[in-house]
Give the backbone structure.
Amino acid sequence: MTTRGTSRFSLIVAIVALAGCAGHPTRPAQDRTAEAARDEQAAQQAYASGDIRHAADLYESVVAATPDDADAWYRLGNARFRLRKLDDAGLAYEHAIKLKPDHAQALYNLGVVRLKQAQAAMVASAQAGEPGDRLRRDSGRIVQRLARVGDDVGARNKGDGGAPPFIVEPDDDR
């Protein structure tokens, strides 16, 4: 086949592919919003019953359908936190804050994530250092200080044995 023939063939393939895409219209926004509302309700039920992995999957669908919903991103962050996916939780909280800069719960939870990440980094630093090494000793001290942050958990008693405090949940404001 000549170069000209190859170009024509490629063009025909591209046109057919695009025509196929045009034959499958996207669902109307109203349908996506209704489905997102059903998924959010199911996610809240799954989260409340302890099926956090399923809740996270559902919240992923919700934020895909309603990407401007700061509360959905916040709840996705909570599910990711419970799954111990701190980096992913932080990203979800950051997204919620980007959409709603005064989202107090997302701001607080992002702080908790950052404290836990700092604590993990200091533990790793202390473990990597040689016995008697100054860096190992300093890292260990910082780990202890960060652990004391979790000792002051207030009336809700949501500490987890000396680690930085737990995240706040949507019903914690009541």
